[in-house]
Amino acid sequence: MSVHENPFDLAGKVALVTGSTMGIGEGIARVLARAGAHVVISSRKADDCARVAAEFEVEGLRAEPRVCHIGKMEDIESMCAHLKERHGGLDILVNNAVLSPWRSIDDTDPALFAKALDVNMRGNWYLSVEATKLMKPRGGGSIVNISSVAALHPDRMLGLYSTLKTAMIGMSRSFALEYGEFGIRVNTILPGVIETRLAAAFDGSAREAILKGTPLRRTGQPEEIGYAVLYLCARSGAFVTGASLVVDGGLSIATH
Known about the structure:
The chain has eight helices and seven strands, in the order E-H-E-H-E-H-E-H-E-H-E-H-H-E-H. By secondary structure, it is α/β, with parallel strands linked by helices. It has a single domain, classed as Rossmann fold (3-Layer(aba) Sandwich), CATH 3.40.50.720. Strands 3-2-1-4-5-6-7 form a seven-stranded parallel beta sheet, sandwiched between helices. The longest helix has 26 residues, at 110-135.
């Protein structure tokens, strides 16, 4: 790489971001598109995918909508077949889609457990496996798994969510070890409280407590997770794999 090249340039790259029609996923997709990537906007609902992709195109960004419910193996197979046929492969995968059940451990019934496992672990695992097959012929690629600071410090009522977010860290490290020889890098990002529709649901006292406990005294923006993803996916992060990057304004070091 020339010293004059932009280490954050993604021109010519194809990126798939799951759960990218809102919140953190949309913020990630926008940052990658602004860096020059062709981004596949994906979620369970076709209308939402089309809406966000159209918004990107209005901004002059390259994007396309594609429905994919990662809890369904047939959707994963269909997505990867589409990527191979239309783009000849894949360069970047961001596993962001998630199911976040708000339940105590005692109230987490087997059906909910199985559903969360299908989305938050099985789906991410097998989509990543298929992604590596699309990356190998291109000489490598980057997979970023979006975990959470809840993986480090579990929250009450989010026991299952926290458990599966912890598993994503182990998954990243295992994939990084096994696929590194193919030039495929796999890393994890652990966001803190980000300004999304979910965060907006916190009442005044809960929000005040979060801000008070965060050294930077604010919540994060979805695009700030996107910048972290960009670093890991571009040449800037070419020697980074198996790493876990906490992006939480210092929340995890200040409150625990």
